[in-house]
Amino acid sequence: MKRALYPGTFDPITLGHLDVLARALHLFDRVEVTVAVNAAKTTLFTLEERVRLIEASAAGLDGAERVTVTAFEGLLVDHARAQGAVALIRGLRQVSDFDYEFRMALANRRLAPEIQTVYLMPSEDHTFVAASLVREIHRWGGDTSSFVPEAVERAFQGLQAQR
């Protein structure tokens, strides 16, 4: 059984992330969405909230029963080995993403040559969508509904109600 990890901060998960996840499900038997714990980043949603939002958002995908969502802190390749993953899924939206992703893939290859990095492009409708852009739109009260799954949109509405 071929297992892949799809790591990221996912703050929040976007329709572009879901598009990449759906593509990964066509290639792998199981996909673990690995939510990064990054103490250096200030996130809009807590780790637990991000895990729940991903689970709710992925539930509607074809093959959703083959998706697991976990949180992980530490070296990603160590977690990938422990999970028996053969690949790390990375989304590439535009050329500017490539420099960072290329350096990360080379470092991961040096640390774990048996684990491949697989780049998947979202549909052209989602190539410009980044979680940082979505957070900025939300911050200024803009309509994020065409960028995020319904569960995230509801969570955004809950955040606004708390303000």
Report on the architecture of this protein.
This protein is α/β, with parallel strands linked by helices and 163 residues long. The protein has one domain: Rossmann fold, CATH 3.40.50. Helix content is 44%, strand content 18%. It is built from 6 helices and 5 strands, in the order E-H-E-H-E-H-E-H-E-H-H. The protein has helices spanning 15-27, 47-58, 76-83, 95-111, 131-139, 150-162, and strands spanning 3-8, 30-36, 67-72, 87-91, 116-120. It has a 5-stranded parallel β-sheet with strand order 3-2-1-4-5, with helices on both faces. Helix 1 (15-27) links the parallel strand 1 (3-8) and strand 2. The longest helix has 17 residues, at 95-111. The mean pLDDT is 93.
Which consecutive residue ranges, at least 5 long each, have pLDDT under 50?
none
Q: What is the overall silhouette? A: globular
CATH class: Alpha Beta
Task: Identify the strand order in the major beta sheet.
Answer: 3-2-1-4-5
As for the number of domains, it is 1
The helix/strand class is alpha/beta
The major pleated sheet works out as: 5 strands, parallel
Helix content bin: 40-55%
The mean pLDDT is 93
Q: Please write the string of helix (H) and strand (E) elements.
A: EHEHEHEHEHH
Distance between the termini: 46 Å
Task: Count up the helices.
Answer: 6
CATH superfamily: HUPs
Radius of gyration: 15 Å
* % residues in beta strands: 15-25%
Counting DSSP E segments of at least 2 residues, the number of strands comes to 5
Strand and helix layout:
Elements (H helix, E strand, L loop, with lengths): L2 E6 L6 H13 L2 E7 L10 H12 L8 E6 L3 H8 L3 E5 L3 H17 L4 E5 L10 H9 L10 H13 L1
Parallel strand pairs: 1-2, 1-4, 2-3, 4-5
